[in-house]
Amino acid sequence: MSGRFDSIPHRRAIVDRRALADDLAALDAPDTMRLRQAAALRLKQALEDGRAEIARRLLDHPAKGHESAASGAFLMDQLLRTLWDFTLTRLYPNSNPSTAERMTLIAVGGYGRGEMAPHSDVDIGFITPWKQTGWSEQVIESMLYSLWDMGLKVGHSSRSLDEMVREARGDITVRTALLEARYIWGDTALYDEAAARFKAEIQNGSARDFIAQKLAERDERHRKMGDSRYVVEPNVKEGKGGLRDLHTLFWIGKYAHGVREPADLVEVGLLTKLEYRQFRRAENFLWAVRCHLHNLAGRGEDRLTFDYQREIAERMRYADRPGKSKVERFMHFYFLQAKMVGDLTGVFLAHLDEKFAARGSRFGLPRIRRSPRKLKGFVLDRGRLALPSDDFFREDPVRLVELFQLADLHGLEVHPLAMRAANRDAKLIADWRDDPRANALFMDVLTSPRDPETVLRWMNEAGVFGQFVPDFGRVVAQMQFDMYHHFTVDEHTIRAVGLLNRIEKGDLKEDHPLASGILDQVASRRALYVSVLLHDIAKGRGGDHSVIGAEIALKLCPRFGLTAAETETVSWLVRYHLLMSATAFKRDLSDFKTILDFTAVVQSPQRLMMLLILTVVDIRAVGPGVWNGWKRQLLTNLFDSAEEVLRLGHKQKGRGERIAAKQAALGDALGADVGDFVRRLADPYWVAEPEDVIERNARFIARVGNAQLSVEATVYPDRGATLVTVYAADHAGLFYRIAGAIHAAGGNIIDARIHTTRDGMALDNFLVQDPLGRPFDDPGQLARIETGIAEALANRAKLTERLAAKPLPRLRADAFTIEPNVLIDNKASNRFTVIEVQARDRPALLHHLAYALFQSKVTIHSAHVATYGERAVDTFYVTDLTGDKITAVLRLKSLERRLLDAATGLGEFASAA
Q1: pTM given for the model
Q2: At what angle do helices 161-170 and 172-179 cross, to 10 degrees?
Q3: Do the beta carbons of residue 488 and residue 478 sit within 8 Å?
C-alpha cells in the first residue's frame, strides 16, 4: 500500500478489501455478464458504505480536509484493486499472459495525487506495452462497465507506451494528467517503464514551455470565473485562490524540479518552511470546504453558493459574534486563505522567474523599458522595483509605504521577492502610522492620477495596507452575506477608488456624463478620494456602519494630513453616503418635499457634487450589472432639482414656469394645439413626468381616441427599460391588476406613476425590465405584455390562476432570512402618506402589496421599486379615497398588518406567494 495513505486512521472501517474479495469470490452466476453485474452491485454497496463512513468522520472532525480527500482516494484504490483482481481471476482468467498482454492501471489527475472529493470524477488510465490485444480490450471494457454500474463518473484512457508519449507531447492536458500518474495495480515493471519514458522523453528540457502554458491556462480560468479571489460565491476548485491554483504551483514545481510531494518544494528552495505551512493550511481548509460541499449537494458541486455557505459554516462550527454572523466569519476565513494562495503564487513565480531568467522574458509580467534613477535606495531588477538588501525595510519602515509610492510614480512593478519581504515585515509600519512622511506617501498613492487601484491592491496583498490603516485591515476579506454585493469590502473599496480615478481621467464620460462633468469643480479632490476609501470602513462592526465610519473618519483624516474643513467634509460624506441613492431610488422626486428634505441635510453645492460622485462609484463598484441607465437618470434628476434649490433658496420657484415650459415644449413637439390635453391633466402630472414621456403619452391618447382601454409598450433606451402606458377608465384595483399582468408576462416593474385625468380616465406609466435588469425589446414580448394587461383589466383572464400557473423559480434569495418591515411616514410629503415596505424579493411581490392596498381602500399615486440583491424596497405614495393623507391610528395599524401579510405571503396571499 502507498505510504501516502498511512495517516488515515482505521482504514478498514472505510473499506476492508480482504472481506470484499471474499464476498466477490463467493458470488455465483450462470454467465460472465451476470457475474460481472452481481460483482458491480456488491462493489457499489461497498462504495456507498465507504463514502458514508468518510462523510461521518468529516462531520465529527469538520476541518480535516486532507484526511477526507485522502480517504476518498484510498477507498477508490481498494475498490479498483478488488475489481481488477476479480475481473482477471473470475471473468477473463489468463493464467499465462504473453508479454504483449501485460497491463497496468494508473490513477491520473487529482486522483493520482491521492486526493478525491466525494463526488469527483474517477480519472484512470490503462497502459499496455504495445497495441492492445483482444484479451486486454475485454478486461478494460468489462472494468469500465462495472465502474459505470457502480454509478461513478469515469474519465479513462487506454494507451500503449508509444501512444502515451505521443499524446503527452502534443496535448498539455494529457501531459498534466500524466505528471500526477500513480500506480494502482497491475504490472509494476510496465509502470516503471512508463514513468521513466515520461521523464526522459517528455519532461526533460520542456519545463519553460510547460510553465508558460500552465500560467496562460490559469489566467484564462480566472477570467472565466470572475477574475477576483474576492467574488462572494467563489468556485472552490477553479476560482482564483482556489485548489486548482495550489495544484498549478505543485505541477510546475514537479515539472521543473522533479518534486514528488509538496513538502519537497521547501527542499528545492521554492517555498520557505513558513510558506509551506501556509500552503498546507490553505489546502487543508479548501479540501474540507470542497468535501462538505460535495456531501451537501450529493453531487460534484464546486461553487460555494449562498445556500451552501450557511450550511457549511454550521458544519464547520463557526459561531456568531457581535456584528458578524457565523457565515460571514466562515467566508472571511475562506477569503483570507484565498489571499494566502495568491501571495504564495507570486513568490513561487518569482523564484521560477529567476531560474529561467537567462532564457528570455519573465513569466506573466510585461517588460518595462524605462529605468528611473531616483529610486530612494531601491534598485531595479529587470524592470522591477527590488530591495538592495534583506533588512532594507527594517532600517527604515516608512520604506514599506514608499515602495508602493515609487511603483506608482514610475509605473513599475514590484519584484515578488520585495513583495515577500514587505509581507514579512509589514508589522513594522505599525509604529510609524502617525509619521507625516509615511502618511504623505500613502496619500500620494491613494490620490494618484495614474493607477491607484492596482497599486493599492498590491499594497493590500502585501499586508501593508491593513497594518498602516488598521481600520481597513478589519475589512480585508470581509464578505457581506447578501446577493447585492459581489465582492469583499476591501475589494469593493479598492475598485471604487479605481472608478473615481477613471471618471477623473475622463474614461467613463459616456456612462457617467454628470459625474465626469462636475468632478473638476470639486474643491478638494483629496477629501473625495479619502471619503471613497472610508465609506464602508466600519462594515461588520455591528451598528450603523455609516455612523461608526463617520467617527473613524474624524480620527483618521487629520493623520492623513487633511485640514479641519476637509475632515468635516469626509466625515459628513461617510455618514450620509447612502442618502442620495436612498432618496433617488425610494422616493418620489416630483414631490417637492422630497427635494427640500434632501437639501436640508446636504446644505451646500460642494457636498452635493461630492455626494453624487461617491454614490456613483459606490454603486458601480458593487459588481457587474448593478448600475444601469435608470439609476443614472434618477440620480441626475435628484441632483438637478437639489442644485436648483441650493442655488435659488428654499422657495418652490419655477414650479409654475416649469409646468408652462413643458406644456409649450409639448406644443412645439407635436406641432399642434395641445390645449385639450393640457386641460385634462392636473399639475402633478406635469411635474412628475419628463418631457419625452409626456410627448409619448399625448401621441398615444390622440391615436386611441375614445377607447375605454388601451395599452402601449415601447422600448425606452434612455432609461434602460420598457415604458408601458395604460389608458383606461379609472376604477379601484386597476394598479394591482396591471402589476399582476406585467409579472405574468415575465416583467419586473421598477417604477410606476399613476395619474387620473379630469374626466375620469387613468393614465398610468410603468417602467419595466426583464428579470436580468434589461429592457424588453422583443416584439413578441411587447405584444404579450400589451395583451396580458388588456385581458387582465377586461377580466377575460383570471389573473390569480395565471399567476398560480406561472412556475415560481427557486430564487437564490431563499438562502437569506429577511424580516419584512413596513414604515409609514406622514412627514415625507405634504400631500401623501408615504409607505415603504422592505421584504425578501420574490415574484409578483409588487402585485401582492398593491392588492393589500386595494383591500385597505387607499389610492396609489406613485410606486417606486428598488432592489438590492435579495432585498426589495417598494415605496408607495398614497391617500385615502377622498384624496387626503391617512392619519387615523387604527387605520394605519390595520394597513401595516395587511402589508406585512402580503410581504411574507401569509393569509389571503399564501396561495400566490
Answers
A1: 0.82
A2: 120
A3: yes
